[in-house]
């Protein structure tokens, strides 16, 4: 497949083969290529935290508690159902790969670093796809319990938590608006 094919056939994978775990060394190998993302001033602001086994279970349990706590329901039964829903959602995820970055004290550098880390994540998603793995980029829920579990430093921001595993099925294809429809070509004043 060409790079163009890889980009066009990468879709978020949410259903994983529960019997298989991606070896951490394989994930590190993909990250070792993903780090060739552009990053202004060569700050290389990123750091990677992989949660498997007991840490994975604790992540899911913490997310369950958070879902119970944030449930708008008034009664305990409904709140617990929200927690069960979260366990169902995350229970099939073999590993969680947290992509963090160090916060620069300078807001403009911080913004560049966030963009650079996002470029790294897209690199990783494409490389995972090329390797026959499945992955999806999820928004991090910033909670002290999750930060402690991931051993994050106070000056680190999580750019994404990736669910990574072997896909159980083909990911659903999504469409895109053609770039031409968002394109402006300016040639004069
Ligand atoms: C910054 C960012 C945050 C995302 N957060 C979530 C998320 O929290 N939950 C989720 O299901 N998908 C999340 N996604 C994945 C997008 O929903 C997904 O990429 C989009 O639906 C397009 O689908 P595709 O990746 O299959 O092309 C996120 C994507 C990005 C770039």
End-to-end C-alpha gap: 42 Å
Helix content: 40-55%
Uncertain regions spanning at least 5 consecutive residues: none
Largest sheet: 4 strands, antiparallel
Radius of gyration, in angstroms, nearest whole number: 19 Å
Structural class: alpha+beta
- 3D shape: globular
> Which architecture of the domain at 13-51 and 94-167 per CATH?
3-Layer(aba) Sandwich
Characterization of the model:
This protein has a domain at about 15-50 and about 95-165: NADH Oxidase. The chain has six helices and four strands. The protein is about 45% helix and about 15% strand. It binds flavin mononucleotide (FMN). The site of flavin mononucleotide has 7 residues, from strand 3.
Summarize the entry for a quick read.
This protein is of the alpha+beta class and 189 residues long.
Brief descriptors of the model:
binds flavin mononucleotide; 4 strands; four-stranded antiparallel β-sheet; 189 residues; NADH Oxidase; alpha+beta
What's the SSE blueprint?
Blueprint: H1 3-9, H2 24-34, E1 46-51, H3 53-70, H4 76-90, E2 95-102, H5 107-130, E3 134-138, H6 144-149, E4 156-165
Antiparallel strand pairs: 1-2, 2-4, 3-4
Helix pairs in contact: 2-5, 3-4
Flavin mononucleotide (FMN) binds near residues 11 and 174.
């Amino acid at each position: 497949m060409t790079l163009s094919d890889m980009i066009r056939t990468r879709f978020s994978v949410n259903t994983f083969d529960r019997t298989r775990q991606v070896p951490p060394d394989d994930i590190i190998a993909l990250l070792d290529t993903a780090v060739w993302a552009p990053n202004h001033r060569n700050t290389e602001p990123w750091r990677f935290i992989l949660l498997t086994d007991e840490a994975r279970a604790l992540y899911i349990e913490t997310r369950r508690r958070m879902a119970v706590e944030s449930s708008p329901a008034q009664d305990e039964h409904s709140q617990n159902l929200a927690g069960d829903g979260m366990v169902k959602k995350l229970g099939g995820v073999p590993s969680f790969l947290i992509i963090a970055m160090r916060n620069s004290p300078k807001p403009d550098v911080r913004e560049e670093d966030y963009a650079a880390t996002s470029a790294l994540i897209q690199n990783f998603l494409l490389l995972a796809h090329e390797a026959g793995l499945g992955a999806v980029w999820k928004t991090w829920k910033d909670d002290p319990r999750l930060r402690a579990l991931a051993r994050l430093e106070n000056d680190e921001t999580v750019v994404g938590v990736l669910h990574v595993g072997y896909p159980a099925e083909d990911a659903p294809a999504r469409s895109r608006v053609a770039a031409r429809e968002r394109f402006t070509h300016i040639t004069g004043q």
